[in-house]
Amino acid sequence: MPPTLTILAIGDELTCGERVDTNSAWIAAKAAARGARIAEHRTAADDRPLIADAIRELAARSDVLVVTGGLGPTLDDLTRHALGDVLGEPLVEDAATMDALRVWYAGRGRAMPDANRIQAMRPPSARCLDNPNGTAPGLHAKVGRTEVFCLPGPPREMMPMFERFVLPALRDDSGEVVRVRTVPTFGLGESTVADLLGDLMDRTRNPMVGTTASGCIVTCRIRYAGPPDGADAALADTVERVKTALGPAVLVDHDEHDDGLVLVRTVGDLLRERRQTVATVESCTGGLVGEMITRLPGSSDIFAGGLLTYSNELKSRLAGVDESLIARHGAVSREVAAAMARGGLDRCQSHHALAITGVAGPGGGSESKPVGTVWIARASRDGTLDTRQFLFRGGRDSVRLWSATTALGMLRLHLVGAAMDLLGQVEAAS
Question: Among 39, 54, 343, 369, whose Cα sits 20 to 30 Å from the Cα of 47?
Answer without folding.
Answer: 39
